[in-house]
Each structure stands twice: as structure tokens, then as C-alpha cells.
Write the C-alpha cells for this entry.
Amino acid sequence: MLSTANRRKEYAAAGSGCSVKSFPRQDGPYRVVKAFPQTSTYKLEVPNAPLNFCSMFHSSQLTRYVPNDRDLFPGREFPCDGSVVLANGVEEHVIDRILDKR
């Protein structure tokens, strides 16, 4: 998991109208491509990263990913927002539940 502490300022400056305190503290999980133990840095595989994105991070910015145990904590599953793009390019939306009706 990658810390988002340095990206919160960019999020606030973008003028999205959302509070920075609601921004997630960590992002990921990302796969470690290569480790450099001499300098405590790691190269991550970050999909959909912009061209000027640096994929090298110090170990202080990373934490180990621990998956949720659904049996112990069933309410900690995060909903999948947005659409899902299939391999053939078709965009699908997943409906979790209906909140209200007219």
C-alpha cells in the first residue's frame, strides 16, 4: 500500500469540492517490481500512471497489504464504484443495491 500524504495537496488544489480529510490515507495494493535494500527503496508497478510518474518509493511511504478477513470483519468490504470495462471494450456498471424508489 502506498501513502497518499504527498498527493492530498494536489487533491485539495484541484478544487473538487471534497474535503481532504475524506481522501484515503493509502492507495493500492501495488506489486513490488524490484527492491533496493541499500537505499530502502522499492520500484512499484502502478497501472494507469501518468508518463511523468516516478515509480520508486522509500520504504517509509509503503506498508504491507493485509487482505480483509470476511469472516471476522464482514462490514469492511469497500464498494466498487464506477464502471467496469471488459476485455472486449464494453463498459458495464455493477448495481449493489437500490437505495430508494420514486
